[in-house]
Design a protein that fits this description.
The protein is of the alpha+beta class.
């Protein structure tokens, strides 16, 4: 069993971004992770894998919505995840673009999705981690990546819940309550942002369950069904938080 970590053969064409495009090989499969992809990176990938030009445009320009496109030799998947902007106290949206074929998976993102970076680092330095995350196919690695990213959203909703509790205590229990309108509007905006991110993802993952068996084998359906359950739980939490913040807004007024 061989673990290889090395620069891509065609990476030499993109010297400015060499350290941001890396490849791990395990058995007959490979994972190429591209951070802050450039046009040169995409030209190299297109030359090697014959990806459709419109897919490559979506990587650089960012697709307006999550989606999954199916081709004869690969799937192109776009997902979106929240990242926290501490400076503005808000959630921004970061896109994860994925190409998955018979024996490869390529992930492209801006570098702010810490969970995917952690998984790649683990696989880079540990054969045990590689066995765990790759399983027997790139389809299983895809599941591990997506599942970890959705799992990382639960702590975000936990922080929102703590903020809601503080506002509630200020309104109902403080001897000298202060107007909470600014804090309410900030949390309300963040809940709206998270709901907008989560809503379209459900249909994409549900479709992924039943996509090309060449890339996602039959035994993986139950795993992707688990991700659908994760999204449903997140959606239900956000629905409850939406109702709470609206009630607190009315009470504050």
């Amino acid at each position: 069993m061989l673990l290889v970590v090395r620069p891509l053969p065609f990476e030499q064409q993109t010297t400015k971004n060499q350290q941001l495009m890396q490849e791990i090989k395990f058995k007959n499969n490979r994972w190429i992770n591209v951070v802050q992809p450039t046009e040169d990176d995409l030209v190299a990938l297109k030359k090697k894998y014959k990806f459709h030009e419109l897919d490559l445009e979506d990587v650089l320009q960012e697709s307006p919505r999550p989606k999954i496109d199916e081709y004869e030799k690969y799937l192109f998947i776009v997902l979106q995840f929240p990242t926290y902007n501490a400076r503005h106290k808000r959630f921004d949206t970061e896109q994860l673009s994925i190409f998955i074929g018979q024996n490869y998976i390529i992930t492209l993102h801006d570098g702010n999705l810490t969970e995917i970076n952690k998984i790649f680092e683990k696989c880079m330095h540990s054969l045990r981690a590689k066995r765990t995350y790759f399983g027997e196919s790139t389809g299983y690695l895809l599941y591990e990546i997506i599942s970890a990213l959705f799992d990382s959203t639960f702590p975000i909703t936990d922080r929102i819940q703590i903020s809601l509790k503080r506002i509630e205590e200020e309104i109902f229990e403080s001897r000298h309550p202060k107007d909470q309108l600014f804090n309410i509007m900030l949390i309300k905006k963040n809940i709206i942002t998270l709901r907008k991110i989560m809503l379209p993802q459900r249909s994409v993952i549900a479709a992924l369950e039943h996509k090309q068996k060449r890339f996602l084998t039959e035994n993986l359906i139950i795993y992707f069904d688990d991700i659908v359950d994760q999204i449903e739980k997140l959606w239900n939490i956000l629905e409850a938080q939406k109702e709470i913040i609206e009630s607190l807004e009315d009470t504050n007024e």
